[in-house]
Amino acid sequence: MKDFLLELMGVVSEAFKKAGYDENLGKVTVSNRPDLCEYQCNGAMAGAKIYKKAPIAIANEVAEFLKESDAFSSVDVCPPGFINLNVSDKFLCDFVLKMSETEKYGVELAAAKKRYIIDYGGPNVAKPLHVGHLRSAVIGESIKRIIRYMGHEAIGDIHLGDWGLQMGLVIAAFKEENPDLVYFDDAFTGDYPTEAPFTVSDLEEIYPKASARSKEDAAFKDEAMACTKKLQDGVRGYRALWKHIINVSVTDLKRNYDNLNVEFDLWKGESDVHDVIPDMVQYMKDTGLAYISDGALVVDVKEETDTKEIPPCMILKSDGASLYNTTDLATIRERVREYNPDGIIYLTDKRQELYFEQVFRCARKTGLIKDDVKLVHIGFGTVNGKDGKPFKTRDGGVMRLEYLIKDINDKMYEKILTGREMDEEEAKKVSEIVALSAIKYGDLSNQASKDYIFDTERFMSFEGDTGPYLLYTVVRIKSILKKYKENGGNVDECSISESVSNASQKNLLMKISGYNEMMRGAYEDLAPHRICAYLYDLANAFNSFYHETKILSEEDENLKKNYIAILKLTLGICEDCMDCLGFEAPERM
RNA sequence: GCACCUGUAGUCUAAUGGAUAGAAUAUUGGCCUCCGACGCCAAGGAUGCAGGUUCGAUUCCUGUCGGGUGCACCA
């Protein structure tokens, strides 16, 4: 179904054409002066230059034709050349009726289905998730859902950091403590134990210590590098131990991501491309673009038009070892082979912007990826505490994601339990749902690229622009619909009619009519925050309508059915929006 | 040093070059005999500074000041 604004634009463009002007001038937007009109067209002013004519004259000519249309209840021209439009109730109601009868409420699904891979920028194994991992998980999950909602395919790959020195560090530290284990016995040829010789909490302790020590203790670092090499060379015991590390970590990661209702289709990692790196490096050399600079293998990626210095993309370090770039490039190559995607979307901290620019350019320049495949880096900002500095625990340490979520769940549980008639079990379930909306909405309602302040109290509030407020609104709609059913009403028999009783109803209908336009924009810009803004506006429009309109006690049956249909439609759109954001509303709260 | 991003009410946050910069929070006032008042209605309060382009600038350009980040063998 076409956007409502495009429908209006069709009418206005036609009028421009009839008046002898370029129809492209007929662009219509929602008015930013609701006191003057509902929609506006500024094309007359843009046309003034082209036709060397006063904008007001053009506007007046076009307005004459617009008045013939039944789409508008009023058409006014204001100096210097604004065309102010009010949409007719019939035109609006007809559109909303059609929306309510269409799958996904009129959102225009993709004609050509595209396939995207979403790379969540890989948490490292053996390291607990911290608050920084929240953003790639939450934003990535939402983007994945938006893409799917629009009728495309999205494949989410967590892309673990499971290779390289960090693994060597863990192994080296573990070896030092447990030198006699079979994993370090070169003569051992039997099967290794299936049970891991450590728990996830052991790992979480080992890694930070080993990492810190390697910076001071050169001998230990050498040992870690040796372990890394043995692992990469495929020494049996090291590989077996490494698998244990992965398994233990992944189990823990899955549990954490489950709590956030975040799912991945692929649990690949940097290690998966290890075997194809030599071939990829050879490919780079064969293109003739890779050359040795200061001992390292690099590809120049700067362009004439650059205003900033873009260093070459490094393929191999001067000691011949691979690095982050190598695995990412090899991964691009594998993804093209395996999935032939139309786009790859990377979610990482925005500090990696330059790095991805280099990698993307290198991939294109060397023909690793075709020009029509989109490579997008969504760099997100830092999660800050109330002091505006990166989020820390009270004692200044890194805030573990698990604790943060637990803390919010506990607080929400307290909140839900007090002043409500709800048993503990339900309160627990409900508080988890509400807490998740608080966290996700708090994050997603900001533009991804900006830093934001993680204010637990504010996010959890049931008042204002928060997740819980939205849930509350949805729960209220559900409650009314439920009462309607209990009184013998049949919701499915209700449909949108052509009556508009009051201003708040029209406002709500107009908000509803903007749904597909908004979704299209959110998809094109991969911008979940637009859905948040829309959802909040819609909830406000509904609440105003609710206060101004008696619904269940309305005596005119037809009017009542119209109201119920509007409620049902509003509810459906709210639920779809929330689904795209990655949370849901409970039945009651 | 060079470059990139960013600067909006006390705080937090929005705005394809359009009219009187939109919300939230906090503050102040009003609204429960009525479908969930965790709600609604109303008031005051903001584009760092200085220029420029434009009929029109939060948006584009230049300068300046403040904040953040990045500048090949980390990821």
Describe the structure.
The protein is an alpha/beta fold. Among the domains are: 4-87, Gyrase A, domain 2 (2-Layer Sandwich), CATH 3.30.1360; 165-259, no CATH class. Helix content is 52%, strand content 10%. The protein has 20 helices and 13 strands. It has helices spanning 4-18, 43-51, 55-66, 89-101, 132-149, 165-177, 200-216, 218-233, 236-259, 277-286, 324-339, 353-365, 401-417, 424-444, 456-460, 467-486, 503-513, 515-524, 528-548, 557-581; strands at 28-30, 39-41, 72-78, 82-87, 115-119, 153-157, 290-293, 296-299, 313-316, 343-349, 374-380, 383-384, 452-453. A four-stranded antiparallel β-sheet has the order 1-2-4-3. The model has no long low-confidence stretch (mean pLDDT 93). The structure holds one RNA strand of 75 nucleotides.
Blueprint of the fold:
Blueprint: H1 4-18, E1 28-30, E2 39-41, H2 43-51, H3 55-66, E3 72-78, E4 82-87, H4 89-101, E5 115-119, H5 132-149, E6 153-157, H6 165-177, H7 200-216, H8 218-233, H9 236-259, H10 277-286, E7 290-293, E8 296-299, E9 313-316, H11 324-339, E10 343-349, H12 353-365, E11 374-380, E12 383-384, H13 401-417, H14 424-444, E13 452-453, H15 456-460, H16 467-486, H17 503-513, H18 515-524, H19 528-548, H20 557-581
Parallel strand pairs: 5-6, 5-10, 10-11, 12-13
Antiparallel strand pairs: 1-2, 2-4, 3-4, 7-8, 8-9
The protein binds one RNA strand of 75 nucleotides through α2, β9, α12, β13 and α16.
